[in-house]
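Hey,
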Amino acid sequence: MAFAWKASGLTYNRYLAVAARVVRRSLKDEPRLQAEKRGEMDLRFAKWQNGKQGENKNLATANATAMADHADHGQS
């Protein structure tokens, strides 16, 4: 017998994300807000050149900037 999440075509990580979101949404206001803050991610990266670490950048911000630059160059 297969697990329900596997039978529906979900990966285990996706299943966990959905389950966590359902639990967070079922909480009362104050605990829900605290749980939602814990669920947020802040990914950072740095470009390395010549063995030296460059500036740490927020991944979401850098991705949005790159997408906007790509869209601008595509319209020219």
